[in-house]
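Subject: for your reference before the review

Hello V.,

The reviewers asked for a structural picture of the protein, and I figured it would be easier to keep everything in one thread rather than splitting it across files. Below is the amino acid sequence we used in the manuscript, unchanged from the supplementary table.
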Amino acid sequence: MIRVSSFIFSFRRFYSKYGKNVKRIVFLLLFAFVFRAGVTFFNYIYAGYDEWGRILWHNYYNEEENIDYLYLGSSHVYCDINPFKLDKLNGENNFNLSSGSQKFNGSYHLLKEADKRHDIKHVYLEMYYVQSTGSGGIYYDSGNVGANQNTINFMKISGNKLHYMLTMSEPSLYGETLFPFIKYRSQLFNYIYIKDTIDKKETDDYKNYIYSTKNDGDILYYADKGFYYRTRQLAQKELRWTDEYRMEKNPMTDDAEKYLKKIIKYCQNNGIGITLFSSPIYELQVLSTENYDNYVSQLRQIAEEYGIDYYDFNLCRENYLPIQKTENFMDIGHLNVNGADIYTDMFWKVMSGTPEENEKYFYPTYAEKLLSSKPQIYGIYQVDFDGTDVGIDATAYKVAANRPQDMEYRILLTVEDEDTRMYQDFSSNPYFSVPSSEHGICTIVARVKGQEEKVQTLEINY
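And here is what came back from the structure prediction:
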C-alpha cells in the first residue's frame, strides 16, 4: 500500500512539473500521425505516379547484392544498357539507377543515395545533350521540375532526399514536391479521375510492381536492375523529328556544368571511378543537331580537366558498332532490346579497354564521320520557319542527309483523299514546307549527284 501511494505521489509530482510538456509532445506525435495519414490518403486517391520511377526504386531497395557498377542518366540508360548482359561480361553486379529525363542534379543525389548502401567501384554517367543544354539544362525552371519529381517520389526519406527536394525547384513549387497530390489539385472533384486512379492502384500488377504489355509483337516490360525491355521496331513512316538544336560553343548550361563537376568530384573524393558516355541515337536526331561537335568538344575538355574518359558512341565507326538500322531502335532516340544487346557488347569492349586501344573505334569528330560515310538519308526534321510560299501558318522541314553536298532530292506529298503532288523534282534543295494543318505522306527520293540509276526512297508521315 505504501509503495502504491508513493508511486501515485511521484507521478503527480512529475505530472505537475512536466505535464504541459508531455501534452505538447503527445499532441505533436498525434498531429504528425494524422498529418502523415492524410498525406498518404490524398496521394493514394490523386497522385498518378510515374511507373518507371516507382518500380525502379522498389527494385533498387530490394537489391540484396552489392552494386559494383552504377549507371546513371536518362532513359538512354535504361533502354540502351542491358545490366544482365553486363553481369556476364564483367562478372560484377551492374545496376541502372536511371530515370526518364534525369538531370545531372538528380544523378548527383542518386549517386549519393547509392553510395550510402553499396560499395560502388565505378560510375558510368550518360551525357544525353537534351538534359544539359538549352531549356532542358535549366534545372530550376518549372518545365523541368516534373522530371525530378518522378525521380524522387519513391526515394526513402533521408537528409539527402530532403536536400534534393529543396534544391530542385523554386520555393513556389515546394508544395507539390513535398506532397505529390498537390500537383493534381485540378482533379479535386473529378470523381471519374479519382476512381480510375484508385482502380489502377488496386490491381495485382500495381501492388506487385509489375508492368508489362504485349501488342502485335511489341513486348514491353520493366525488368529488374533498371532495364526497360522492349521489342518494338522503329517504322519508316516515323522518321520525322520535330526538334532542332543549335550547339553554340560550350553549349552546356551553368546548372548542368556545376552538377556534372560535383558528380565527378564526389566520385574522386570517395575513391569511385567514373566514366562519361553518350549512347547512340538514330542518325536522324544527331543530323538535326547543328554543330554537335561543340557539345562533344566541351565534354572532352571537362573530362580532360579531371583526368577521366568520355566516349560518344554517336561517333563510333559503323564497322565496330553497326547500330544505325531501324530494326535496332524502338523510336528515334532509344534502342530496343536487339539494339541494346548489340550496343552493350560494344559498350563493355570500350569500357574495359584503354583510351589508346579504344581510339580506333571512334571518329575524332562527328563532322569527320559524316564525310567518311556512304551518302544516305535518314528522314526529315522540323526547322525554324522564316517565310515560304504557303503562308505564315506553315511547318518547314529539312531532309536529314549525312552527305547533303553530294545529294539531290525529289519530294512528293500525298494528302489523304487527294492526289499525290510533286513539291520539287530532283534538286539539291533539302527544304520543303506545308500548311501546319496539312497531314499526309511525304515521299523522299534521294540520289547521289551523277548517279541517276541508284536511288533511296523513304515514305514518312507528316
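For the response letter, the relevant points are probably these. The chain has 16 helices and 18 strands. The chain has three domains: 1-46, 51-370, 377-461.

Happy to draft the paragraph if you're swamped.

O.
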